[in-house]
Amino acid sequence: MNRFLWPLLAFLVLVGFLGVGLGLNPREVPSPLIDKPAPEFRTTLLHEPERSLGKQDMVGKVWVLNVWASWCTACREEHPVLVDWAKRASVPLYGLNYKDEPGAAKQWLQRLGDPYTASFVDRDGRIGIDFGVYGVPETFVVDKAGVIRYKHIGPVTPEALRDTIEPLVRKLNG
Predict the structure, then answer these.
(1) Interatomic CA distance for residues 81 and 9, integer angstroms
(2) Predicted TM-score of the model (pTM)
């Protein structure tokens, strides 16, 4: 009897884990950086390479960081959403141009529109690694103290803006 009971029990446990896993949202990957200070960084700006900005320049305001690249197809999908949102957003939207050629990135923004207050250059991907970027696009909401409060993985959708990002920004600014 035990000979048949153990494999059945193992099978039921496996089915249970599979059922729980299938119910999870793949865009909600837990980040160890949520509620932790954003990583320190300072880098040049895409459109003004002689100028640099970093985390310390944003302290005191709520800001959103969108990690993007001209070679990223999913970034192209979210881009019109960001362009539209930037026209009415009450918070600065910064871009982190991740592992990209500056010339290609500038052409991409010129052709599709530039929603960013500024775009940071991250050619080697070190800043993205420090932020725990799995792949582009990813978007972070950072509070006035420089603490990461939210991470969105994948293209930002109108629903994600309406239901999660905008309410959080309002709460943090309030």
Answers:
(1) 48
(2) 0.83
Whole-angstrom CA distances from 135 to 4, 31, 149, 162, 172 are 44, 13, 19, 23, 26
Which residue stretches of the chain are H helix? 2-22, 73-88, 102-112, 126-130, 158-160, 166-173
pLDDT digits (tens, 9 = 90+) for 77-115: 999 999 999 999 999 999 999 999 999 999 999 999 999
Kindly report the backbone phi and psi dihedral angles of residue 170, in degrees, each rounded to the nearest multiple of 5, phi listed first.
-60, -45
Q: Which of 135, 165, 128 is nearest to 153 (CA)?
A: 135
Please report, in angstroms and rounded to a whole number, the separation of the first and last CA atoms in the chain.
64
Residue type, 42: R
The confidence band for 17, taking pLDDT boundaries of 50, 70 and 90, is: low
